[in-house]
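Extended Data, panel c. Modelled sequence:
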Amino acid sequence: MANSPHGGILKDLYVRDEPIQASLQAEAETLPYVTLTERQLCDLELILNGGFSPLDGFLTQAEYTSVVETLRLPDGTLWAIPIYLDIARSELDKLGVSTGSRLTLRDPRDDQPLAIITVSDLYTPDFANEAEKVYGANDQAHPAVHYLFNNTRDTFVGGKLQAVNAPQHYDYVAIRRNPTEVRALFKKLNWTRVVAFQTRNPMHRAHRELTVRAARMRHANVLIQPVVGLTKPGDIDHFTRVRVYQAIMPKYPNGMAQLSLLPLAMRMGGPREALWHAIIRKNFGATHFIIGRDHAGPGTNSQGQDFYGPYEAQDLVLKYKDELDIEVVPFQMLTYLPDTDEYMPINEVPNETKTLNISGTELRRRLKTGAPIPEWFSYPEVVRILREANPPRDKQGFTVFLTGLHASGKEAIARALQVALNQEGGRSVSLLLGETIRHELSSELGYTKRERNINVARIGFVAAELTRAGAACIAAPIAPYDEARQLVRQQVDKTGGFYLVHVATPLEACIKNDRAGVYQRAINGEIKGFTGIDDVYEAPENPDLSADITKTSISQIVHEIILLLERDGYIGDR
């Protein structure tokens, strides 16, 4: 028999509101609406399907304050993370929203109405207090605190929800199960004791061993329930992770484990988040929940220290174990013992026993460089999937971004580099010259600082997409402002390599090279806002390479760029 829901009743609003769904659908089309953010979409789905029971709406001010200050709802029920609907006051005023208003909540992906909220509260939160009380520090090195101060709108809207439509998913539909469906699955399989395992990372041999040990200790079956909503920035995408989970499921004994996805927006809130995760798994019917080392930890703070202790999450959940009514299965980190070919909790390893481990950082290094990943660490099927998603450097894309004054020689360098990379082979090469982009993508833009930055941002978007596809991209705009160049670096760095080359040819030489006479027209006042004459060029402080065509030949500059790419493994056969 599945565990009872948190609060005693599964608040499945789809089931509750199904008899009036048609009328709610019609009403939703007549109401003012807001389009949800990605986090709000995740939160809404789990409120509507009962995953966040006993919640049946977004928190009112009294509920929000109670959760932040006491880890409880006003009626005393444990609840660890504030779930709120944040909307800009300006948007609320424009829509005419006040207490008692009904508002449609729409899916940001397809604009479908998902729910109607009856507004009972409009209030202004104290972000600093939430950061301190919920996440333990007002430090924007914490991803949830960063989100709070940089992405959260200024007004919270509290109120009860009515379900109109479930969000439409097109990926892994067969294993996206809501609490009602998971409970029905347990009943069909005659599972009465279920240990749930939460993860936002790929699973390897140690994870399989950990979950099997938990099942053995508690005489239970295993529910692998990975998060496919929002996780920590920089995490491996959920498509890759789910393929890994599917590959590892046959490694369990037949009938021991099931895989089901959870559309949760994680906050990386450590101890409070662990308590929240336990409540969610209870709502899905699990009787046991694994909490390992540094559960939902965000890493280090701005002083370089861990936000939370390694077993602080276990301690908080165990503190409330009697009223949680879901048994916590605490685990130490597992380590590999090569002499006996087994995994063992690190606190059980005898002194002077040889152990092996591969950290997440080391795993990412091996994936990037193509270095071997031993079978004692992961299954070949898993490694193959991770290598497909994380190809070695010589299969990754990169962008060489040349910046400099008009007629500095950056276009000539770009064309020569294109020839050299085409000769090298192995990937397609795209050339984005400043004038080409102006003509093809930014013909409506002028030359104000704002318009220049928009143009550079468009180049950055195209460069990032080409890099993501494994191409070599050479961009050669003037790009006079450092802020815009840094934004391009941030975009491209997410998908591959980025090299900033400052073509630092002096202005006098650029004027001499300008056979079209554009500089002279600017000097004469015929052209306004010309970079280098009456508009600033912010020279890069730390370019990957700085070159001056009056001192170095174009072929030598290209050779130096090639050497940078070879050094980092993007070209050449190692």
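The radius of gyration is 28 Å. This feature is highlighted in the accompanying rendering.
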